Amino acid sequence: MIWMISSILFVLLCLALIGISVYVGWQLTHPQRKPVDASPDDYGLHMENISFPSRSRDVRLDGWFLKSPYAPTDANPMTVIMSHGYAGTRLEKGLPALALAKSIVEAGYHVLMFDFRNSGKSEGKITTVGFLEKQDVLGAIDWVQEREPSKICLIGFSMGGSTSILAAAEERVVLGVITDSAFSQLSPYLRDNLPVWSNLPRFPFTPLILLILPRLIGINPHRVDALAAVDHIYPRPILFIHSRDDEAIPWSNSEGMWSRHPDAFELWVTQKAGHVGSYHMQPEDYTQRVLAFLSKL
Hints:
43% of the residues are buried. This protein has helices spanning 2-29, 97-106, 133-147, 159-170, 186-198, 202-217, 226-233, 252-258, 278-281, 283-295, and strands at 48-53, 60-66, 78-83, 110-114, 151-157, 174-180, 238-243, 266-270. A hairpin with a 6-residue loop joins strand 1 (48-53) and strand 2 (60-66). Helix 1 crosses helix 6 (202-217) and helix 4 packs across helix 7 (226-233). The chain has an 8-stranded mixed sheet with strand order 1-2-4-3-5-6-7-8, with helices on both faces. It has 10 helices and 8 strands. The radius of gyration is 20 Å and the shape is elongated.
């Protein structure tokens, strides 16, 4: 009798753990949308509302194209495509992205800002932390090539940085990439840091979520591998920006990618800034480094 009760309690416990893991994993891939509640008008920027398909053609994405009135007329201009972080929007409010975009536009570069799938005003019902979002960045590249032919540089923050690396590895038209607080490999990152996002104890929930979730939503986190992708970008340049005090994504992620090709890549490590917090701490230095990188492309 005691053995039967123990067995039932064990089964119920396992079911409860699995249920919690499925629920939290589902919440992480279906984060609540944040509003796009600021406008380039607030920064004195002229915008064109744009919409384009992801390269995978399964969703349409919403964004802005900020055409620089200072772009050179006697040379091939450049468009900077910005990609935001997990569960955010094109605004990337931690910076804010529009403040950085204003500086880039005033320096003579066009800027494209957009919402990833399942974010802001874009279509989609699932967030895959780079697996499908790579197709969204490629869709933005397609829009630029078709509508505003120009040189292209990618700037991405957190998930957007990793995703930009994945996209640039496949698209040779991209001349360079700037990442801020990017992770290098999704699977090892989640294995080591999932409690930061799930707010659950590492054991038993992290292995359970990583076992169940990919099968539940049909993604392969091992294919979100920016560390391998940088080899396909080289010798094109990448600027890695990361705070040594980032508690969400350790700065060693950027260091590991930079160290693959330090002859072509740059690494700027800041201090005392939170996740994607370097611009907020040092806006002038941050802007100068970004513009210096763009000027060399």
